[in-house]
Write a structure and sequence with these properties.
binds magnesium ion; alpha/beta; 43% helix; ATP-dependent RNA helicase RhlE; single chain; 214 residues; binds adenosine-5'-diphosphate
């Protein structure tokens, strides 16, 4: 049976997952986490409820625990504010309380105070989860520095496309290093998402699953 540790997940993280009732990776987690930890580009198609959030959050957490730069190293792009806060909350559940110097995450989204988000960024964070519009707003105001970004996640790429967010996503990608790792998660694949994959990802490993957690 596949375990998180057999995929290369550090024991303090897999222990934390077990404490949260997750001792076995879901199918999409089992086929993506190892490659994600190794920095490969990945496109993962898997239905709602298949566990895509942890498939990218576990590698992000593990990889950013090693680096302590002055600006974020991982950027997660999501289509809605609800998803941004949800991803932030799931990330927080992975943190083990007493460990000093734990990675920090800021959620950046529209319809909410920009001052508060700027304050979070100024304090220093390793991970940013953002909706494209507000992120570009903060980039234009020079309130966020993307030069240390090593990994970009595009979550719910199909919904991003439906909502017309692919142009801002491409604009954001163009402001990050060309040798970054890019991972794209989606329930379905349509033409616009395919174009983004072809133009902005480097030889990604493709995965597709059908099973659901619930
Ligand atoms: P998706 O983004 O693919 O729609 P989520 O990442 O939101 O799915 O996960 C759906 C549910 O599955 C969440 O409630 C999450 O806590 C649960 N889950 C994720 N991974 C596991 C796991 N390895 N074992 C048990 N439950 C899990
Ligand atoms: Mg999801």
């Amino acid at each position: 049976m596949t375990t998180f540790e057999s995929l290369g997940v550090a024991s303090h993280i897999s222990n934390r997952l077990s404490e949260n009732g997750m001792s076995t990776p879901t199918e999409i987690q089992a086929i993506t986490i190892k490659d994600a930890l190794e920095g490969k580009d990945i496109c993962a198609m898997a239905g709602t409820g298949s566990g895509k959030t942890l498939a990218f959050l576990i590698p992000i957490l593990q990889n950013c625990e090693q680096a302590k730069p002055m600006s974020p190293t991982a950027l997660i792009l999501v289509p809605t504010r609800e998803l941004a806060t949800q991803v932030r909350d799931v990330f927080m559940t992975l943190l083990t309380q007493p460990r000093k110097g734990q990675p920090r995450i800021a959620a950046i989204y529209g319809g909410s105070s920009m001052e508060r988000q700027i304050r979070d960024l100024t304090r220093g964070v390793e991970v940013v989860v953002a909706t494209p519009g507000r992120l570009i707003d903060l980039m234009d105001r020079r309130r966020i520095n993307l030069e240390n970004i090593k990994t970009v996640i595009i979550d719910e790429a199909d919904r991003m496309a439906d909502m017309g967010f692919l142009p801002p996503v491409v604009e954001i990608l163009s402001k990050t290093a060309a040798d970054r790792q890019t991972m794209l998660f989606s329930a379905t694949l349509d033409g616009d998402v395919e174009t983004l994959i072809k133009r902005h990802m480097s030889d990604p490993i493709r995965h597709e699953t059908t099973t659901k957690v619930r």
